[in-house]
User: Fold GDSL esterase/lipase from Lupinus luteus.
Amino acid sequence: MGCTCIYIATTWLLLTHILLLIIVVSEANKKVPAVIVFGDSSVDSGNNNEIGTVLKSNFRPYGRDFEGGNPTGRFCNGRVPPDFIAEAFGVKSAIPAYLDPAYSIKDFATGVCFASAGTGYDNATAEVLNVMPMWKELENYKEYQAKLRGYVGVEKANEIIREALYLMSLGTNDFLENYYILPTRRFHFTVSQYQDFLLGIAENFVKELYSLGARKISITGLVPMGCLPLERATNIFGDHECNEEYNNVALGFNKKLDRLILKLNRKLPLLKVVSANAYDIVNDIITRPSAYGYEVVEKACCSTGTFEMSYLCSDKNPLTCPDANKYVFWDAFHPTEKTNRIVSNYLIPKLLANFR
Assistant:
């Protein structure tokens, strides 16, 4: 009888502990009511579909592994990192693009993407392919705030704005589409000076978000951009290996970004900024692809993986691979959904620890 009582008491205690844990986790998830995204093609979920640029991905094979097999404007065969991150926080499984007419403020109240493929911190980068510069993304966000207050009321909207998780992912285009391609910035800046120039813009952008009510911000640094299939293809004199000069630039940028994040956390009360540094995990995937179940890393799934991106990635090309999960990269510039998932799973524990 005594053993039975002890067993019942222990079982009850265990069930109570589990129940409390469920309640705590549930309450924690509620602390991030929305995920709000700024950046470039690494996170764009379809905004470029609605603007006058040639840089679009609203056609197959893009999106062929997305739910329903529909091309959404994501530069991927499926989902991009903000989708996985939002799902991990219990918000939603896909973040809609702000300019997509299929969605309304009802959808955007729990997550919205302002990103534009091809953009960068530098306004001059956005001009290369006529995409939205960062200042326009911010203007759209201000418009969104007004719509949100009209939809849920001022008090609730301010709570969503304050508790939302803000994701920023950009910087690669500033180097690969601007600095190393066009002469203007190289004439005025050394690499180090250009890094500082970009980070100055990033700092001002974060301060502006803070002034508008944001309190939880994640900034993604640069990945090993010298190992993108496009950069390997053009690295003729380096036997089509990774361009280590570009990778070193990315590492240097990330170190400076980490210092900026420390500065922002010290100077802005109530703000929490986290560095979502994906360089190491992407580098490990590229260095040890078989450990992650990949068969091909040098070329992309979409055709040969040399120059294919946007309209050069064709569903009719017989070289486009049937199984994207065997490839690290989807097109010459962007990861497959599988890679996006692995990278997101690497970052999510840090985000959950800091923003729950």
